[in-house]
Specification:
- The chain has one domain.
- It is rod-shaped and about 85 Å long.
- It is an all-alpha fold.
- About 85% of the residues lie in helices and about 0% in strands.
Length: about 220
């Protein structure tokens, strides 16, 4: 109760600008929770040991095995390989790149919100500073209440500024962390696609025809 009372009192002393500051905090919290849950879900779907099996099967021309692994697992890399195989009769690389792009877009979803909040929150705090100081200087002509109004206005300005900076700082670290994860995710897809292409070429050199397998998949009812 004591902590909640202190928070409410500080919020009230911060002035009306604390409402949009609180809105940015709530929005940032929602985005951080959603992004965190998305990455946790993605991590749980990863099957690195099955990806190694798929690579081995791809290099030996066992395309049916590769397809079976991608069908029963939610690993995005295995699904990406299946997407490429299903379009091998047209362009395997293009299909894999398009599929990877859709996953990278999912990884980057709502990151622009955090980027905006990191910039917006301190600006809102600065606006609170300006508004508080304007009110303080406007009351200087009143000799009796001038000192109290000036100190109150400065307090309001400092609270708003501190709140805005705290939100920006609190968002900056997870924002950079998620950006790094997105970059690593993109690079992993690029490496996966290039390696898959090399394995397919190796299989073709040994007489295994991926295009025929893809065509056969499409011809099945």
């Amino acid at each position: 109760m004591l902590v909640s009372n202190i928070v409410l009192k500080t919020f009230e002393e911060g002035g009306w600008i604390m409402w949009p500051v609180a809105a940015t905090f709530f929005m940032a919290l929602c985005v951080l929770l959603e992004r965190g849950l998305w990455w946790i879900s993605l991590r749980r779907s990863m099957r690195p040991e099955l990806r190694e099996q798929a690579r081995e099967a791809l290099g030996t021309g066992d395309f049916a095995r590769v397809w079976a692994l991608g069908e029963k697992e939610a690993d995005p890399f295995l699904r990406n390989l299946n997407e490429g195989i299903s379009h091998a009769h047209t362009s395997m690389l293009a299909a894999m790149h398009l599929h990877a792009t859709s996953w990278v877009e999912k990884a980057e979803a709502r990151m622009w919100v955090l980027g905006t909040i990191i910039t917006l929150a301190p600006l809102l705090g600065l606006l609170g500073t300006v508004v508080g100081l304007m009110g303080s200087f406007a009351s200087l002509g009143d000799q009796e209440l001038g000192v109290m109004k000036v100190t109150g206005g400065i307090s309001e300005a400092l609270i708003a500024t501190a709140a805005g900076l705290a939100i920006a700082i609190g968002c900056l670290l997870p924002y950079n962390f998620f950006r790094k994860r997105v970059s690593s995710f993109r690079m992993a897809f690029e490496s996966w696609i290039n390696h898959s292409e090399l394995l397919v070429q190796s299989a073709k050199a040994h007489g295994h025809d991926l295009e025929s397998f893809a065509t056969g998949r499409h011809s099945k009812p």
